[in-house]
Write a structure and sequence with these properties.
The chain is α/β, with parallel strands linked by helices. The protein folds into two domains: 135 residues, Aspartate Aminotransferase, domain 1 (Alpha-Beta Complex), CATH 3.90.1150.10; 258 residues, 3-Layer(aba) Sandwich (Aspartate Aminotransferase, domain 2). The protein has 13 helices and 13 strands. It is globular, with a radius of gyration of 22 Å.
């Protein structure tokens, strides 16, 4: 059991809030006004981010002005939204160049598009590699593409708490591997992967890498340009606060764009979209990875969320995320270990994203008991309580108070009154 000499006090947490350079951003999100002792403590921003206060006005502008008044004429501006917002995301969050990122489809569809394009770019190679503990969609898409193309899947094992060992990964990369699919931040434990180091390993083996940045974008530094990353996808409804069902993004390194042809040939990806020609000819640049009509209303919400993260600065966001999770880990060590709770994430903050998982045999019941007490976490199999303090709107005192409520639940056995079997997904 890990021990600590000094348990952080609530006063110490409040002092961290007073010194927080990002404190002003909290007021720019809905649901943050309540200061009462029974207020809802939202620690699930890594599943769905809070709504920015500017989002309703952005949606209203598109609906009431551009759509209601401009009608079809508004397409003259809308048609560029995917790449314009993509450029803002590239510069302000992902460390990419203009023309390398676009808003497009869902994460799963974008992963399929880039995976097939990358596999086609490595003819003669018949293996796709992914992590055995990666998010299910990623593994499912890899398996589906392999089945369609007569390829083999090589799943690399990873520690459920500590994440992927690059030495194990390196041994799985050889001349047969076409593409590696990997998350920068593990969805369950928050374990962080070194993008530059893994990209270099794959490149040495002659393979391309498709990165899933869903739990990373808006929470940790990706720096796709400096790391030499080839391809990436990610969602915008978690730390980018784009709202439920918000469209995803994809990244393609500029030098690869003309070499790749994605498999879904839609008219928005055509070279002369409105020529309505008889034969598909892909557009130059990042636009060739588009498919159909983009969700204009939803992109308006994404734009607001991206702008907030860019204004805050991804380096500062990452630094606060580490500090918040460090506090969470310290309190778990001090208060919860005696109740059978174990840290299920890397202890070193530089090796994790902005969420922490705690293991307990009754994690499902603890999740329900916390929700009943006004703390919103989520549950992950097999026995993980996942806590995601989003840096833009979560305070240090929020983490302290949430952990105190969790301590009380365990001390009183309040969770034991909840069904042991999962009855719904959180």
């Amino acid at each position: 059991m890990h021990t600590t000499s000094a348990v952080p006090t609530r006063a110490a947490a409040a002092a961290l809030d007073d010194a927080d350079p990002l404190a002003c951003f909290r007021a720019r999100f809905t649901g943050t006004d309540d200061e009462g002792p029974d207020r809802v403590l939202y620690l699930d921003g890594n599943s769905l981010g809070r709504m920015p206060r500017d989002t309703p006005a952005a949606l209203a502008r598109v609906a009431e002005q551009e759509w209601a008044q401009g009608l079809v004429g508004s397409w003259s501006g809308w048609v560029e939204h995917a790449t314009r917002i993509g450029d803002a995301l590239a510069a302000g969050v992902l460390g990419a160049r203009p023309g390398e990122v676009m808003i497009s489809d869902t994460t799963s569809v974008d992963l399929y598009k880039l995976l097939v394009a990358a596999a086609d770019a490595r003819p003669g190679r018949d293996v796709l590699v992914c992590c055995a503990d990666d998010f299910p969609t990623d593994r499912y898409v890899v398996a589906g593409v392999a089945a369609q193309r007569g390829m083999q899947v090589r799943e690399v094992p990873a520690h459920i708490d500590e994440g992927l060992d690059t030495g194990v990964l390196s041994a799985a990369l050889d001349e047969r591997v076409a593409v590696l699919v990997l998350s920068q931040v593990a969805y369950r434990s928050g374990a962080l992967v070194d993008v530059a180091a893994v990209t270099a390993l794959a490149r040495e083996a002659g393979a391309l890498v498709v990165w899933d940045l869903s739990h990373a974008a808006g929470a940790v530094v990706a720096d796709l340009g400096a790391s030499g990353a080839d391809l990436a996808v990610g969602c915008t409804y978690k730390h980018l606060n784009g709202g439920p069902g918000a469209p995803a993004f994809l990244y393609v390194r500029r030098e690869l764009q003309e070499q790749l042809r994605q498999p879904i040939w839609g008219w928005f990806g055509a070279a002369d979209q409105f020529e309505m020609g008889p034969v598909y000819d892909p557009a130059p640049g990042i636009e060739r990875f588009a498919v159909g009509t983009p969700p204009v209303l939803a992109m308006a919400a994404v734009e607001v969320g991206v702008a907030l993260v860019a204004e805050a600065g991804i380096e500062r966001v990452q630094a606060k995320g580490r500090a918040l999770t460090d506090l969470l880990v310290a309190l778990a060590d001090a208060w919860l270990a005696e109740h059978g709770v174990a840290l299920a994430s890397p202890r070193d903050a530089t090796r994790r994203g902005a969420h922490v998982s705690l293991a307990h045999p009754h994690a499902w019941q603890l999740t329900q008991a916390l929700i009943a007490r006004g703390v919103v976490p989520d549950f992950r199999t097999p026995d993980r309580l996942r806590l995601g303090p989003a840096p833009l709107y979560t305070r240090f005192v929020d983490v302290w108070d949430a952990m105190e409520r969790l301590r009380d639940v365990l001390a009183t056995g309040a969770h034991e009154s909840f069904p042991a079997e999962r009855t719904r997904v959180t």
